[in-house]
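Late entry, written up from scratch paper. The run itself happened at the end of the previous shift, but nothing got recorded in the book at the time, so transcribing now.
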Amino acid sequence: AAIRAIDGTGPETALVSAICEQLHIEMTTGRPVARDIVTTAHSQPPAQLGQLAPVVVAACDEQDEVALRLVETAAGHLADTAAAAARDVQPAVVVLAGSLLTKAAPIRRLVRATLSERWPGTPITEAASGEAGAAALAISRHQGACIDDKTLGRLRGETPVAT
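Output as recorded:
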């Protein structure tokens, strides 16, 4: 979206300056800025590109139309992915994890709304810690069975461990 705004094929957006700032790119006019954004983004490990998500969320908070459309599209993709994972079964519960789904208000709100429409009555909750979930998964795989609620509570730090 930022590249399209720079080259004139898309609407203006605050994302251009915000992305340049985040990627430490000096703002000048024309294609060299676009090329710098692409080059810098592609030179980073994929996980590092996640640093741009808060930039988009902040632009949403400022009501930037381009950012709002990006978030709407992303939320739709996330909800579609959840539906694909569940296949044709209505899940007993949907657990949202990761900062975009638990802290980034625009994405969180849209994903929750879409999933609520898709699966009315299904509780939607948020994972408190990815570490506890990863540990629970590892224990479950090692034991060959799901862990009980008491153990999960201990992993989350909710239940004191007897000494």
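The chain has a mean pLDDT of 86.
(Scratch paper discarded after transcription.)
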